[in-house]
Here is the input.
Amino acid sequence: IIDVGLKVEGRVPLKEFGAKGKDSSLKVGDTVEVYVERIENALGEAMLSREKARREESWVRLEEKFTKGERVEGVIFNQVKGGFTVDLDGAVAFLPRSQVDIRPIRDVTPLMHNPQPFEILKMDRRRGNIVVSRRTVLEESRAEQRSEIVQNLEEGQVVEGVVKNITDYGAFVDLGGIDGLLHVTDMAWRRVNHPTEILNIGQTVKVQIIRINQETHRISLGMKQLESDPWSDIGTKFPIGKKIKGTVTNITDYGAFVELEPGIEGLIHVSEMSWTKKNVHPGKILSTTQEVDVVVLEVDPAKRRISLGLKQTLENPWQAFASSHPVGSQVEGEVKNKT
Here is the structure.
């Protein structure tokens, strides 16, 4: 029973004094605001509504916060088609399922009946519609955390992280609240065909921060940078004319790549494979994993390229023939082909 200063008192159901998902703590003598719907009804009582008064108070407060872009506190109390209803201390808002969390959540029960912050996406007082988002609040919070973490990182810094995801082009490493990309070309000085050759999901790795984009918070990482660059003294290790042994790692239409040591590969061009076989695919002469002797023909440290020769490991048959058959000498031969 409430005295509103009229000739008659009014009656308000007790349930209207408890917000959805909360308990009422009303006591005799408390001053409350109510909405007068009718001064006197057939029973001789004033028709009052605490619910409408709270709704009016809430709308005024919420519109002010919406204009200022401030967050509001609410309680998820019911599930409806396409989302949930949220009590904003008197005003009921709609929370779309897509706005509950950053990632889809199957069970929202733990989030219900607990006060938490929301952001108002839109309001229409005439229709009585309010749409809120919990997701934007989480995204802003995560962005703030990422920004704080990035501020404590420096290019060149060596850190530990956990491999979170692996793709064809690299691996994403969790640095403790923010992910960095370890590109496949920065995993090792040697050729890496796929990240799974080196890494596994859940593996702890030590990496160096190569680049940090302060605007996008993108971080580029490297593992090979923790080891000395095998190309730093390439000219000393592999002088021109040196004969060395290597392993064929890849065969293409134009030649074969040979690993001379971890991180160092050279190319045997198809024209440097045989003194006598012309227009033959490299795969007809060599195979992957095959060990071969090669000769260093050219070294370009700036471009990280080494040209190798296979035929140079053998005697040039044309020179041998010229030495044993001077110009003018008579020879016999067998016809092999007609053109």
